[in-house]
């Protein structure tokens, strides 16, 4: 009779057996195991003739882990009467050429792109029309009242955009991204005119996506007057500072999604790189709208790809539910099955 220890558990056998026989009895695939006898690794080629002696201590180890080949399916993003798979909205400004713009839009995976309703943004210096450069079957155009500093001007631009896009047969004719700016230096929104313009345009049948500051009280009032989506700024337009006040974004999400979890909150403006996009999505935002971060990057196409992956990663992280933060360590590998220490 011999007694051996297999992964610290004693086992008795009437006579000495080989490692191959032991693995077979335990149901272990020798191709997927490594074996150590008395702290010495035994090569697989020696298993068949390596006899186990009384008192031998044997460690049999394998690899643990797991994963799937593709992430779980996410629900689509619903914004008013629109439904999209991509949660990244991009702009069309600041690109050196229309060709570069189209390459970046394609790389980003976006389905929505914004266009400012102003002649200098629709016609480039060569006299080419921006709308001719966009694939209307691929992208839904989101007209933008960029550059407007009053409710009256913003409303006027929105009406013109609806007339223009209706003639093109683009679904974007029924919605508008509303901007009513209050200051040319910071480009922060005027809260009073923003609220007035939102109410008027909603009453005229527009689906209004409203650019606003990260003020939870204003955000709640905008939803109350019928805004299809509230779009708080992460930081000032084009600043690249990222999400400066995540706590306010959290409060906005809490207020606007209370009893209405699918209400779309989309961060608009201020992101500079992929990590900013991921942070917005990890907070629970439904999407991100950006332009400068891609168009003004040193390599816009690479940055467009980065933003595409960032929005997907941030969304997956949010849906997964992050682990709580702890003061002390918590081992990621299981302590059960730990190989016996060689140190006494």
Please sum up the structure shown:
The protein contains eleven helices and 15 strands.
What series of H and E elements makes up the topology?
EEHEEEEEEHEHHEHEHEHEHEHEHH
Counting helices, strands and paired strands, the structural category is alpha/beta
Helicity level, as a percent range? 25-40%
Return Rg in Å: 30 Å
Would you kindly provide a written description of the structure presented here, covering whatever features stand out?
The chain has two domains: about 60 residues, Beta-grasp domain (Ubiquitin-like (UB roll), Roll), CATH 3.10.20; about 240 residues, TIM Barrel, CATH 3.20.20.70. It contains eleven helices and 15 strands. α5 runs parallel beside α6 and α7 packs parallel to α8.
Write the layout of secondary structure elements.
Blueprint: E1 2-6, E2 9-13, H1 19-26, E3 34-37, E4 40-42, E5 57-61, E6 77-79, E7 82-84, E8 88-91, H2 98-108, E9 112-116, H3 119-122, H4 130-133, E10 140-144, H5 151-168, E11 175-178, H6 191-203, E12 207-212, H7 216-224, E13 229-232, H8 246-257, E14 266-268, H9 274-282, E15 287-290, H10 292-295, H11 300-320
Parallel strand pairs: 1-5, 8-9, 8-15, 9-10, 11-12, 12-13, 14-15
Antiparallel strand pairs: 1-2, 3-4, 3-5, 6-7
């Amino acid at each position: 009779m011999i007694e051996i220890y297999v992964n610290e558990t004693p086992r008795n056998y009437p006579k000495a057996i080989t490692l191959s026989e032991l693995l077979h009895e335990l149901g272990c695939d020798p191709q997927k195991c490594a074996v150590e006898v008395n702290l010495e690794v035994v090569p697989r080629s020696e298993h068949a003739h390596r006899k186990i002696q009384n008192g031998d201590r044997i460690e049999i180890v394998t690899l643990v882990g797991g994963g799937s080949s593709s992430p779980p399916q996410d629900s689509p993003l619903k914004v008013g009467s629109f439904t999209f798979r991509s949660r990244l909205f991009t702009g069309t400004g600041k690109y050196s050429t229309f060709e570069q713009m189209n390459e970046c839009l394609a790389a980003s995976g976006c389905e929505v792109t914004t266009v400012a309703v102003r002649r200098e943004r629709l016609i480039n210096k060569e006299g080419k029309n921006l709308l001719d450069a966009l694939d209307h079957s691929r992208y839904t155009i989101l007209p933008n009242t960029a550059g407007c500093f009053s409710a009256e001007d913003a409303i006027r631009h929105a009406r013109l955009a609806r007339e223009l896009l209706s003639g093109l047969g683009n679904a974007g004719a029924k919605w508008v991204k509303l901007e009513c700016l209050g200051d040319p230096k910071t480009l922060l929104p005027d809260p009073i005119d923003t609220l007035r313009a939102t109410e008027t345009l909603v009453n005229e049948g527009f689906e209004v996506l409203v650019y606003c500051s990260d003020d939870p009280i204003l955000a709640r009032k905008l939803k109350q007057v019928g805004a299809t989506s509230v779009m708080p700024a992460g930081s000032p337009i084009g600043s690249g500072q990222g999400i400066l006040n995540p706590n306010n974004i959290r409060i906005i999400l809490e207020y606007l999604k209370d009893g209405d979890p699918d209400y779309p909150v989309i961060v608009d403006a201020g992101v500079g790189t992929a990590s900013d996009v991921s942070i917005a999505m990890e907070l629970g935002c439904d999407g991100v709208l950006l332009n400068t971060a891609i168009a003004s990057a040193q390599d816009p196409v690479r940055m467009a790809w980065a933003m595409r992956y960032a929005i997907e990663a941030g969304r997956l992280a949010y849906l997964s539910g992050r682990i709580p933060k702890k003061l002390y360590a918590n081992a990621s590998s299981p302590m059960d099955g730990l190989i016996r220490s060689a140190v006494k």
